[in-house]
Amino acid sequence: MGLNFSGCHFPQEIIMQALRYYLAYKLSYREIEEIFAERNIRFDHSTLNRWVIKYAPLLEANFRKRKRKVAGSWRMDETYIKVKGKWVYYYRAVDKYGLKIADGERGRDFVTKLFTGRVTRAIELSRHILKCENA
Fold first, then answer.
1. H helices within the chain, ranges in order?
2. What is the torsion angle, in degrees rounded to the nearest 10, for the CA atoms of residue 112, residue 114, residue 115 and residue 120?
3. Sheet with 100-104, edge to edge strand ranges
4. Which pLDDT value is given to residue 50?
5. 101 by DSSP, 3-state: which?
6. What is the pTM of this model?
7. CA–CA separation, 1 vs 63, rounded Å?
8. Residue 86's beta-bridge partner residues?
């Protein structure tokens, strides 16, 4: 299920860049229209809306196929390293397949809350996706 850009008035790179701006950042259609107008690429915000309606579900389906599921079992590692001459704790959470879920450096309480939130959300999302796929 590849993306078909035949019949479009703009090159694939322009459409994909506009979609990236809209989907990855909190930009409105009109703001993206202005960004491209500064680069002498002119299209209407309603055109971008049609692109999002047409291509966003296809992109999501392609991304979901490639994304590996996060396992329900995970481990958190902690080590003490020197960064820019200062000793800090470095944390890393990995699932049972060895995939990194989150990492960072800061105080233990902050990182623990951050990891717990990220890992919990990742596990809940993977379980929700599995339920939807199996239903």
1. 12-24, 29-38, 45-66, 108-134
2. 120
3. 74-83, 86-95, 100-104
4. 92
5. strand
6. 0.51
7. 12
8. 83
